């Protein structure tokens, strides 16, 4: 009877130890998976920050290009305006010269 109890206790000890190893393995796997997910989240955050910085830089470049184009068009329009004024003054001067 004592031998049976000893065998039963030994069997339970081995069984419990085996269960603990399985639980420890599950815990280790869970922690590794969580760490991998956290690292992936950090990488996604970093990528998003870089993308935002790049988008901001591109937006600034686009705004500068728009402003430069606007100034160029305005300068051309101002030149056209002065050309029309000069042509009008020339035409008036020609009329005045023809009258004399």
What's the order of the H and E elements? H
Provide the low-confidence segments as ranges. Answer: none
Major β-sheet profile? none
Characterize the quaternary organization of these chains: single chain
What is the molecular shape?
rod-shaped
Helix/sheet category: mainly alpha
Mean pLDDT: 87
What's the total helix number?
1
Q: Share of helix among residues?
A: over 70%
Extended strand count: 0
- β content, as a range? under 5%
Spatial separation of the terminal alpha carbons: 147 Å
How would you describe this structure in keywords?
100 residues, single chain, 1 helix, mainly alpha, 98% helix
Please tell me about this protein's structure.
This protein has one helix at about 1-100. With about 100 residues, it is mostly helical.
Secondary structure blueprint with pairings:
Blueprint: H1 2-99
Brief characterization of the structure:
98% of the residues lie in helices and 0% in strands. With 100 residues, it is an all-alpha fold.
């Amino acid at each position: 009877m004592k031998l049976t109890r000893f065998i039963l206790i030994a069997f339970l000890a081995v069984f419990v130890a085996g269960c603990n190893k399985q639980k420890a393995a599950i815990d280790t796997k869970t922690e590794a998976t969580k760490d991998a997910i956290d690292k992936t989240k950090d990488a996604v955050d970093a990528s998003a920050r870089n993308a935002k910085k790049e988008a901001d830089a591109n937006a600034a470049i686009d705004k500068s290009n728009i402003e430069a184009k606007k100034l160029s068009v305005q300068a051309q329009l101002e030149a056209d305006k002065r050309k029309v004024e000069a042509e009008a003054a020339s035409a008036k001067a020609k009329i005045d010269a023809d009258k004399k």
